[in-house]
Each structure stands twice: as structure tokens, then as C-alpha cells.
Amino acid sequence: MGVEVNAAEQPSQHATAEIIDAMLEAARYDDIDDLTSLASAGVSLDSKDSEGRTALHMASANGHLDIVDFLIHNGADVNACNVEKNTPLHWASLNGHIEVVKHLILAGANISLLNSHERSPIDEAVSRGKMDIIDAINEAAAQVDLSRTQVS
Q1: Is this prediction's pTM over 0.85?
Q2: Which residues are within 8 A (CB) of 14 and not within 5 positions of it... i.e. 6 or more apart?
Q3: Which of 110, 105, 96, 91 is nearest to 140 (CA)?
Q4: Is the C-alpha dihedral spanning 17, 65, 115, 7 positive or negative?
Q5: pLDDT tens string 125-134
């Protein structure tokens, strides 16, 4: 992508509900230009709307891998919870976005977090019959485990 946001260089800005909604809408509708513009103006990538949703929630739910990668690369919290304790991984799993699921896990998303309904991302995938998501979660989790293994 080539676009990076350096939080240390951004002006401190208290984001209004309207600005946060604009950021979430940009992530939801795959508008990287608006998203980078808002981030460059100092809007935190982890800003939450009234329901606790972040830009990463919206991009993950809608399968926008480029937006997800941008947000992860620029420090967005991969384990951010909304008011129902859903993470971006819950939403990506529920909606069947395999590549997003993999990218979130490789970036540190916790596969064991439970939402307010006591459901993990795997539970959400099962509820929709998305067995390919379970395979993707297991594959990415194994890859993370392997990367932590040291050969002596």
C-alpha cells in the first residue's frame, strides 16, 4: 500500500462522533483514501463509536483485506472489543472472511476471547456453518505457534 501513519507525528485530536462515524464508514466501504486522510488528521485508528465498534471491526466484518492490513500495520488494536465484547476476529469469522481471519490472527488476535454471549470466534463460525473459517483459524494459530518455537 505504501501509506503509513506515524502516531507520534499526529496532532492530538479529540474525535467527535461525526468524525468517528466517518472513519468507520470509510473502513466499512473500503475507502482507503478517506481512512488515511482521517488518520493523517490525527483521528485515532482505535476510535470507537457509541456501540464500541472500531474501523478494524468494520473492515473485518466486510472482508476489506487492504483496509485491515493498513489498520494492523499502523497499530490498530486487533483485540478491540465492542459493547457486546465482539472483536474484529469475531466479525470476520461470523461473516466468513478467511484471509482477514488469517491476517488478524497472525497480527496477534486472540482466538479464545468470548463475547457477551460466551462465544469465541470459532463458535461464531460454527453458528453459520463456516467450517473453512475453523480451518483458517487452526492454520493461522499453528503458524503463530510455530513462529514462537525455537530450535535448539
Answers
A1: yes
A2: none
A3: 105
A4: negative
A5: 999 999 999 9
